[in-house]
Design a protein that fits this description.
2 domains, disordered C terminus, 4-stranded antiparallel β-sheet, D-amino Acid Aminotransferase, Chain A, domain 2, alpha+beta, D-amino Acid Aminotransferase, Chain A, domain 1, single chain, 270 residues
Length: 270
């Protein structure tokens, strides 16, 4: 069934201390497995396979941290005779120091995201739409694409969730917009609550986004990524550590959370 895109994947950030936030990745993959009728290994077994793979490649080859680990779970539908497959692949992280300092440019994609598709709520291996959209952004000299949904509301990036700040409030499209329930989206919302930063999840027109003060994107590999431009609309970016910027306050809180949340498994060794 891997040949037909019938499966799920997660991309984990692997540091010298181990994988980050494995529980959140398993929870999302498990929800996707339930939707597709797949039987995912329990969290303990799933995590053990990830840690064993990380230990193996760390012990066998010189390893530069951090890196990305794609965990793919494919096949195993009841009506087929094919067994489930659990596949793991290591790759480099594509984001640069310059992007975090200067911010990235978004390209407003011409084709809408279909918020009514059942696939938008899961991390499906049927990922061609995302890849084509990301390539369209690159062809327009942008680092990431930005989707509106079929109703014209802002949705998400091709591989990232969207946040914006206006009048001290943190906004992000609700899941009903068609955006993926990102692991870092969840963490940023929780951090904002702990920092007493007002948050709102809803359906927002593009005009709300373009009139905001700060914009950033999130995913498991990029963390908090500032946005400097959407098409021809520029946005100001405060330096890291600035207390005037709610984005940078959240960015610092996220970095501190990462330091506290390394895998505590005794099975991991460097």
């Amino acid at each position: 069934m891997a040949l037909f895109g019938f499966g799920l994947f997660e991309t984990l950030l692997i540091t010298e201390k181990g994988p980050l936030f494995m529980d959140l990745h398993w929870q999302r993959m498990n929800k996707g497995a339930n939707l597709l009728g797949l039987k995912l290994p329990d969290e303990s077994s799933w995590s053990r396979q990830v840690l064993n793979f990380v230990n193996q490649i760390t012990s066998q080859t010189p390893t530069t941290f951090p890196y990305a680990l794609r965990v793919t779970f494919s096949g195993g539908a009841p009506e087929t005779q094919l067994p489930s497959q659990f596949l793991l692949h290591k790759r480099l992280i594509p984001y640069t120091t310059v992007q975090y300092t200067l911010g990235i440019r978004l390209h407003l994609l011409p084709c809408p995201r279909n918020e009514q598709s059942p696939l938008v709520s899961i991390k499906s291996t049927n990922y061609v739409e995302n890849i084509l959209a990301k390539e369209a952004a690159k062809l327009n000299n942008a680092d990431e694409g930005l989707w509106l949904n079929t109703q014209g509301f802002v949705c998400e990036g091709t591989m990232s969730n969207l946040f914006f700040i206006k009048d001290g409030v943190l906004f992000t499209p609700s899941l009903s917009s068609g955006c993926l329930p990102g692991t870092r989206r969840q963490l940023i919302l929780e951090l904002a609550q702990s920092l007493e930063i007002p948050t709102q999840e809803g359906l927002y027109p593009l005009s709300d986004l373009l009139s905001s003060e700060e914009i950033f994107m999130t995913n498991a590999l990029m963390g908090v990524m500032p946005v400097r431009q959407i098409n021809d609309f520029p946005f100001h970016i405060e330096s890291l550590g600035s207390t005037k910027s709610r984005m940078q306050v959240l960015n610092l809180a996220y970095k501190n959370l990462m330091m506290k949340s390394f895998s505590s498994s005794n099975d991991f060794h460097v």
